[in-house]
Fold each of these.
Amino acid sequence: MDARLQRLARTLIHYSIGLKKGQLLKIQGEAVATPLIKAVFDEAVRVGAHPYAQIRVPDNEETLLKLGSDAQLKYISPVTRTESNKIDALVAIWGTENTKYLSGVDPKRQAFSRKSKGPLMKKLFKRIADKSLSWVGTQFPTLADAQAAGMSLTEYEDFVYKAGHVDKGDPVKHWKKVAKGQARLIKILNRIDRLHIRAEGTDLKMRVKGRKWVNCAGTENFPDGEIFASPIENTVEGRIHFSFPACYMGREVEDVHIEFKHGRAVKESAGKNEAFLKAMLGTDKGARSVGEIAIGTNYDIKRFSRNILFDEKIGGTCHMALGASILEAGGKNHSAIHWDMICDLKKGGEITADGKVIYRNGRFTI
């Protein structure tokens, strides 16, 4: 087995979720991610936990969305409900054999299905916020994901493992250092009220007073590298242009422009897959509100890969999530979607806080 994979598994179990003896751990991923599923399972057994693996079959999801009745799309298994209440920890492993497997599905049916899962998502967000559920999501490098990123498999493996610092040395030491550095920034950001983001095609204002900025350093996403907050819901005003394609649920939406008034998206457009964008924003009442505003701080991720786990962390960018707030940040917006979209700030971008420049050309100035 690739030593980097084993190092990743150990980091996920011992650092990211801090798994303990006797805890119930769910590991989920597609069959193509079996090497990492096995490595995580092995490490969990060594801890004395009770791991089990759930293998996702993407073709089944496509079949249900294309052929299922409304009742079938809305149905949530009692097994799934029980599981969401009982597990102590979750390791979600991303990586697929086909990144476009939902491209032929009606966007409205995807939105309908997503809405039906809203209560389940709300429950999971609540458990994560109150620390009764530890979770982390990570990437297993697959050929399909490498192709989507425009890399060979070997290049993509190097990209994935370097971003998480599991390629060499002590990854835990690195992420603890990241956490310490970001804690200094968060101490400052937690005192601000008015945030103003400017870049090409972007002039956006919001208020964040009383909301909590969260330090992301490898505990819930791996790799990581961001700080985020949930803005006061009705204060988001202005417009934003997302520099990179917005990838979500197997679709790629390009050249996204969104205008906000009183915290709601009132006008949206896209150069590609605009119908999907509009369908997702129509999922439920909360889908047109902002659940998260964040700044990427991982400068080891230097290129766009069409994978939000990495792309939202790119140093020199900010990202916004439409839909559900992260409860630990104090947000109050509820939605069945949480769609992160990225705005590049490296060339002329600027963020001011209470009238003072705190970020310019992709770097903090404080």
Amino acid sequence: MPRSALTGTRIRARRNLRGLRQAELAREVGVSASYLNLIEHNRRKVGPELLAALADALGISTDALVEDDDGRLINGVRTAALRSGADLDDLERIEEFTGRYPGWAKVLAETQGRVEGLERIVEQLNDRMTHDPHIGEALHEIISAVTSVQSTASILNDAREIEPDWQARFHQNILQDSARLAEGAVALVNYLDAGKTDEAGLAAPQEEVEAWLAARGFHLPELESGKVSPETLVARQVELSSEASRQLALRWLHQFQRDAHALPAEAFTRALGGIGLAPDRLAQEFNVPFDQVLRRIVLLPASVMEGLSLAAPGLVICDSSGTLMFRRAIDGFALPRFGGACPLWPLYQVLLRPHMPLRVPLVTAGRMGRRFMTYAYAATGPCAGFDAPVTLQATMLILPEAPGMVDAASWLVVGASCRTCAKPDCAARREPSFMMSVA
């Protein structure tokens, strides 16, 4: 069992709770009081035998003296240090610093977490302001109403004499345009506020469906067991407030049903536990298309993933135009809302090579880039007849890096968007980044 940087702090706290003096506890476990003092101040690591003796003397389990939260705390402090450009010598003493000053370490780790959260918000807002057609239409309506009010007011102000009939008309126009301006502003605020929640009634039908599935953990046990039909399930969902969202949900549920039938939960879970997260081998095992395995992995219940010690994956699907049709977000990986983005490079690459699976290791741009393994696959739709257009759908599974997953020789560095990416030497850059001036 690995020793935590804060094990000594917990030993001291437990000793004080029991009312033991340092010398008494040291005598009981067979060490000197001075050595125990160094341990309690996190200046000496504790071996497994001594840790067991201390836990027994304090009447607790060894697990109570070693907590997994310490690893996250140390990683948070290390991330903050790397962001500030700390020397390598200082980085080697991160664990010592965390052990001696746990309070300050927690402040640094929490601050680093807030910074990362704000960076993600900036990336999402940038993507939304750049590509969201609803915001563009709302702003155009507001500007149009403001211009109309300004023009009418200018006429009333500049004209020396206006007939009462025309004056009444101008006043009526100002009243109507002012009401239009107020309604447009309220609608824009409501739309922006709706985008921050997981409630139903989001702006776009696709977002309603994604929010509904997210609330259910992207798993539908009713369909898995065959107790209800997709039509019955959709009819019961008040969260799907529009006819368009219900139609989209129905299409997705039929797809889920086909995937669940081809890859039964029990057999697929057993194979996943034996083979691991290897979509190519799973597809061969069940003799199914590659993209069907990618979707099935994402739609497994959270309890199954936790039982296999696997982190929750992400998924994104687009059609041949590059328009995103489905998204399941994953922490630390920025998924665009409306347009293409650098992290989706593998997704768009497979559109050029249908029915050829692609595996691409990605690392997000920045000082503390996160690593992900992506699997992508594009497949043509069913033949609709002679001279009919060929439909193409690309699917990409996103997995956080895990020990033993793959030893990638080179990782593809990707940013959220050109405007917020500080990578200076990117050959695919389309516009300058405002981050370069502060990087």
Amino acid sequence: MKKGIIFLVVLGVLGLAIWQGTKYFKTEKVESPWRTRKIERGLIVQEVRATGTVQPIKNILVGTQVNGPIKKLYVNFNDEVKVGQQIAQIDPAVYQAYVSKDEATLASAKANVLSSKANLAQARATVELTQAKLVLAEKDLVRMEELRKNEMVAQSEVDTALSNRDALLAQVKVNAAAVVQAEAATQQTEAMIQQSEASLQLSRANLGYTTIKSPVDGVIIQRNVDEGQTVVSSMNAQTIFTIATDLNRIQIQADIPESDIGGIVMGQRVTFSVDAYNRVVFTGNVVQVRMAATSVQNVVTFPVIIQADNPNKRLFPGMTANLAVETGRVEDILKIPAAALRFTPPDLPPCADEEKGGIKKTGGPAVWLVGPNNKPERMKIKQKLSDGTMIGVEAEQDLLGREVIVGSQTASASSAEKDSVNPFAPKMPSHSVRHAAR
């Protein structure tokens, strides 16, 4: 019994000695006061993000130029149509009556022309007959005058011949005026023919407009009328259908702020997604940067047109696209977190390239690396591209694998504070809450 007790006591003493020795010789781990990230090499893609609306490359509004009730609709939503295909019919009864009326008017005008030409021919024949009689009357007058000289006829006969000659001269003038009048009447009736032909052409055109045909190959994406509805065309043609051309390709119009428009050029690669297929990434290219600026609440934007393929026609006109325009790309470059450029060690002693009490640096951008004994070491860099979270940089030294400081550790301080604070005392607001309150 005593031996067992002695054995247990010795065993306990040895265990205590081993534990104390282990605690004595154990190297205490020094916790770093910084939050760090390892510098790596990789790909940096700089993007401008925006939203836009999916649109057909060409959108055609098919309207009506005549009034009347819709007699028949031959297509509906999503129907594919070909150029020249009939898609609607307006009741043609009224316009057919106009055509018949103008055809009759034209026939009457042509008959009037024939009558006027006949009158003109008669007037010209009358002139020729009167001129022949005038020639004969002048000869009779000459003969009577010769006979009178020889006193073979009375003076009254000479006077009668002279009177006949003068009457025929006057009749020639009257007949010539009748010819001019007949010619004017003929020209007027010929003009009436041209007017009647123009009126008939207009009536036939309006009759043709009652048959509405597709001007392009495409897809019906909008129908604005129903059968039996009366359409009225006034200053602007009333739209009946909206036809989108080939939807195998689409375009997106995005409004880019003026702060980013300088980096957008034609040909840049664009990736985008839509809510209907949130796991599918579509690709396209910038085809146009328009100068038509728009200002909304003092924010100036410029429209940018992107064209892309539409596989299986899954993208519908009107969908909202979330765009990322690739404005820059560089591979195998040093990458550091953007937070590293905003970090400044606390209690930093003033130096030559810093203002006293401030953080303004005259030596250009720099980051802080973990140096010996966890001391921060400042390193100047040159910024290249940024994707918003990571920045591509260049430096005079090879920084690959070095630890860059992105912030200070706060966990140990908060735990020490927690141990020293009375749990029953009211809690003070955290630093972030106080900062937000300010």
